[in-house]
Amino acid sequence: MIIIIDFGSQYNQLIARRVRECRVYCRIEPPDITVARLRELNPDGIILSGGPSSIYEKKSPKADPAIFELGIPVLGICYGMQFLVHVMGGSVKQSPKREYGFAQLEVTRDNELFKGIDSPLQCWMSHGDSISALPRGYSPLAKTANTPIAAIANTEQRIFGLQFHPEVEHTPAGKKMLKNFLFDICECKRSWTMKSFADEAVERIRATAGDKQVILGLSGGVDSSVTAILIHKAIGDRLTCIFVDNGLLRKNEATRLKKIFARHLHLNIRFVNASDAFLAALSGVTDPEKKRKIIGKIFMDVFEAEAKKIKGARFLAQGTLYPDIIESQSTFGGPSSVIKSHHNVGGLPKKMKLKLIEPLKFLFKDEVRALGKALGMPDELIWRQPFPGPGLGIRIIGEITKKRLLVLRNVDSILLEEIKAAGYYRKLWQSFAVLLPLKSVGVMGDKRTYENIAAIRAVTSRDAMTADWARLPHKLLASISGRIINEVTGVNRVVYDISSKPPGTIEWE
Ligand code: XMP
Question: For a 10 Å CB count at each end of the chain, is N or C smaller?
Fold first, then answer.
């Protein structure tokens, strides 16, 4: 097992994820974890994370220096390395320039940490302070143009430090460094699996929920479905799922989901068809934020009314993932502005005085899919592309009417058929259609047409925080466009969205 000591870096969960990818169990602990507790946990290695502070700030987080005397290998990353240098008697000083971004790293001394890695290599830096003098027993291992001491080791005591971030993708050899640390230096075994994660999560849910009732908003997406299965495993029918049909779902979606749920998830589900309430409230509304707020508010009202019928409910379970937390937290990079009011059930727990259970909150999407697989979920649930809570409501630009919903549903359904047939569904983060509030002139069978324009959006992404437009083959785009224009009454032009995020967003509203 590896313990990651959390000095506040936004990359902590990424370190944990990298360790899990190597099939090694890890836990994130606060800096004030006691040495006695560490002894009890008896990890094979300790990773000191980065953090936003400077070691000389009064309130900067510090761990007990006695951790370096446990005989357990330690890897300090960024602030973690500065902390270790500081307590071991070296010195850290403020650099005149903050170093942020790519840097070329030159390895200057052979070391186990860099075994199998060619120098020079690219690394990702993000720091204000630098090491100016090393403690006794430590040697420098690598440098960059701006950072003469970019990696250090006390080989005898098995203590290492890296000024850059090995956990991010921008340090391509970082995974290899972490592997060297885990397997050669700490001698960890590859024994952790998603199945072990599931077992542990189930235990934790059982302990938290006790004999109380839990409610969950089931959307049919992979996150809420996996959450439901975990909780069901833990507490059985004391979990009640609520599925709200907001009238903004894809073609045949409600029926399809009901079938999948009945076949594969033997859960206690209440279906609420609230389409009329949503569509009535949205009538005449064109402003994207207003639409989102209305959809969010009605969802809350409908959900709350249904949840009230469940006696003794104390907990609300949500399939929040780690990137959702990062995107909505302002501690990382200052107060972030609201780009879109994401409609999840964020306001519900407060309003209904429920406590949250979020068993996936430290996982990334691909890990949730792996977890779903370990739980025996069928591929058709695991591999569903994400679908936003406000549904087609934010994909019909302008006013949402029943007629326009019908047009978009037909366009969207052809698009999905084509994407699936071409084997692209799983390769794309999302692929969907948007109905524009514009008409254009066309000619069909020698007749003038004046009809709607549909835009196609297909993106690749790892976690939706950034995304690139998919380079779909022209042949596929041609068959998508050909079929839509021929088969959907009311559309005579199809365009393809070639914007990335940032500066675009994935959804249009
Ligand atoms: P944007 O458009 O912000 O979307 O780039 C990022 C990801 O989030 C999804 N999305 C939502 N999901 N409620 C959700 O549950 C929402 O209100 C919402 N808005 C956007 C979007 O589909 C993409 O995957």
Answer: N
**Number of other residues whose CB lies within 10 A of the CB of residue 155:** 16
Say how far apart CA 46 and CA 38 lie, in whole Å.
Answer: 9
- Name residues of the chain where pLDDT drops below 70: 325-347
pLDDT score at 341: 67
Residue 2 and residue 74 in contact, taking contact as beta carbons nearer than 8 Å:
no
Between CA 473 and CA 374 the distance in angstroms is: 33
Tell which residue, 431, 274, 417, 329, has the closest CA to residue 12.
329
Closest atom, ligand 1, to C-alpha of 390: 17
**In angstroms, what is the C-alpha Rg of the chain?**
26
For residues 509 and 506, give the distance between their C-alpha atoms in angstroms, rounded to a whole number. Answer: 9
CA proximity to 497, closest of 477, 475, 482:
477
Q: Alpha carbon of 357 to those of 89, 266, 381, 427, 466: distances in Å? A: 44, 20, 22, 31, 27
| 372 touches 222 (CB < 8 A) | yes
Residues in a beta bridge with 100: 126
The Å distance, Cα 181 to ligand 1 centre, comes to 37
Distance 176 CA to ligand 1 centre (A): 33
Select from 156, 155, 173 the least CA-distant residue to 164. 173
Residue nearest to atom 10 of ligand 1 (CA): 388
Ligand 1 center from residue 418 Cα (angstroms)? 23
Q: Which of 384, 465, 497, 507 to mutate to test the pocket of ligand 1 (most atoms within 8 A of CB)?
A: 507
What pLDDT does residue 101 have?
87
Helix (H, G, I), strand (E, B) or coil at 404: helix
Helical spans, DSSP H, in 25-138: 35-41, 79-87
Q: Whose CA is nearest to atom 6 of ligand 1?
A: 464
- Residues whose beta carbon lies within 6 Å of some atom of ligand 1: 340, 342-344, 386, 388-390, 430, 464, 501, 505-507
Q: What is the pTM of this model?
A: 0.82
DSSP state of 14: H
Mutate to test the pocket of ligand 1, among 322, 342, 429 (most ligand atoms within 8 A of CB): 342
Residue of 506, 508, 509 to mutate, ligand 1, most atoms within 8 A of C-beta: 506
Tokens of 100: 């942020």
Give counts: helices (H), strands (E), the chain. 15, 18
Give the chain's domains with CATH numbers: 2-185 (3.40.50.880), 194-382 (3.40.50.620), 401-496 (3.30.300.10)
pLDDT of residue 465: 79
Residues involved in catalysis? 78, 165, 167
Q: Which of ligand 1's atoms lies nearest the C-alpha of 295? A: 17
Q: What is the pLDDT of residue 163?
A: 97
The pLDDT of residue 238 is 97
pLDDT digits (tens, 9 = 90+) for 396-442: 999 999 999 999 999 999 999 999 999 999 999 999 999 999 999 99
